[in-house]
């Protein structure tokens, strides 16, 4: 599969700054003008224009955790200069928290636009970067929350350069910080034109998710290895019992029985109903049951620079493209989990098929890295907080799903997400 272009969206809430939450990034701003992260952002929409592995066009959205702390001395002049219609900073400063959040968001959007990255404070259309508020984000004393959402970009343009410019702008106006729980999510739908994943493509992706589950866990840092917001797809409670049992018995049964079960699924919408019913897993298939139609990678950690963001985007795109282009019949008689070296080969092969704009990313970052540190799971108290947040999110559509679904000319009217 080939994804060509990213859109970045930073959501504030969940797995971000305010503790190990789900996976949206947010940034909180200091009340005297500075900002500090409180959540997790994400890089949304990628879309390719030429067919690869049967995909005529691919769209990717990616969440990246990136809480920021912007020094007042650098941001304040922008706030004072902002004067939409009648309001000025001195006046707005006394209108309460809501107004101050608005001022900060508009100021950051203005800085990005001034750096030739068009930005606003609404995600309507995903045609520009958006600096958003995220109500579910835990806001720290004296700081304001916010989320950063990218526009839709194609990989046959300089998407790497645009993401880099966004981070450079944030670093120029403030200091970027990460907090516990900050993370990055990557969403990959098959098309912006309403096309859906083909069953055989999803079969290959699920086989790769199973075969490389341990290898992918080894690729993420300690706090993402055993995470309440991005657990293993085959951990207890993450998938239906019969799939979990076949996965657990693989060492005696081989991968064949599990792969055969995957191949029996003829409708993509049945995957989140009958296989992976939980969205808080490493590879989330829940959106296949909606117009969005994405496969979401929730495992990446929060990032505070472009290099890290590009790395996890490349990791996700390479994995999915590599999975769909692989002949899994060669693995069905095996009784061992995929080696980390083989994961590297799959990802590098997938990126190569995506073309010049993606092929060299990993090479420039010293290859796929293995994190050998032991997992650092949440404490009992932290798990209770996370459980409460999950209950709060239950049955609540995300900003991305609602906004994308309102786009008449994109997967919105043909798709939705997180």
From TrEMBL:
Annotated spans, Disordered: 1-34, 369-418
Feature: compositional bias, Basic and acidic residues: 10-22, 380-398
Biased composition (Low complexity): 406-418
Lineage: Eukaryota, Fungi, Dikarya, Ascomycota, Pezizomycotina
Name of protein: Amidoligase domain protein
Pfam family, one: Amidoligase_2
């Amino acid at each position: 599969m080939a994804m060509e272009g990213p859109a970045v969206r930073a959501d504030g809430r969940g797995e971000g700054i305010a503790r190990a939450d789900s996976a949206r990034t947010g940034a909180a701003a200091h009340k005297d003008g500075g900002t500090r992260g409180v959540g997790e952002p994400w890089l949304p929409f990628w879309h390719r224009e030429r067919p690869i592995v049967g995909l005529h066009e691919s769209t990717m959205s990616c969440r990246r955790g990136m809480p920021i702390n912007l020094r007042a001395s650098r941001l304040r002049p922008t706030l004072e200069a902002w004067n939409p219609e009648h309001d000025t900073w001195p006046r707005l400063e006394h209108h309460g928290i809501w107004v101050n959040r608005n001022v900060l968001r508009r100021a950051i959007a203005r800085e990005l636009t001034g750096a030739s990255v068009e930005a606003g404070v609404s995600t309507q259309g995903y045609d520009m970067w958006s600096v958003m508020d995220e109500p579910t984000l835990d806001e720290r004393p004296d700081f304001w929350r916010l989320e950063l959402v990218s526009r839709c970009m194609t990989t046959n343009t300089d998407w790497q350069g645009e993401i880099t410019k966004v981070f450079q702008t944030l670093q120029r106006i403030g200091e970027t910080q990460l907090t516990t729980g900050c993370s990055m999510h990557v969403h990959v739908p098959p098309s912006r034109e309403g096309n859906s994943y083909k069953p055989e493509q999803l079969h290959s992706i699920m086989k790769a998710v199973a075969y490389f589950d341990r290898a992918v866990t080894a690729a993420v840092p300690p706090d993402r290895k055993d995470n309440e917001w991005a657990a293993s797809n085959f951990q207890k409670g993450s998938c239906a019992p019969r799939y979990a049992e076949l996965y657990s018995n693989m060492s005696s049964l081989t991968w064949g029985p599990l792969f055969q079960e995957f191949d029996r699924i003829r409708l993509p919408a049945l995957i989140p109903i009958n296989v992976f019913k939980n969205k808080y897993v490493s590879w989330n298939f829940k959106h296949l049951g909606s117009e969005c139609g994405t496969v979401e990678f929730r495992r990446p950690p929060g990032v505070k620079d472009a290099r890290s963001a590009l790395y996890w985007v490349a990791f996700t795109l390479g994995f999915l493209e590599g999975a769909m282009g692989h002949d899994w019949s060669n693995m069905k008689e095996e009784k061992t989990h995929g080696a980390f070296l083989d994961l590297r080969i799959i990802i590098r092969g997938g990126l190569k098929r995506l073309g010049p704009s993606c092929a060299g990313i990993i090479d420039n970052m010293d290859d796929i890295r293995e994190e050998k540190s032991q997992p650092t799971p949440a404490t009992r108290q932290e798990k209770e907080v996370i459980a409460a947040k999950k209950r709060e999110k239950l049955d609540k559509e995300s900003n991305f799903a609602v906004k994308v679904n309102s786009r008449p000319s994109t997967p919105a009217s043909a798709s939705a997400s997180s």
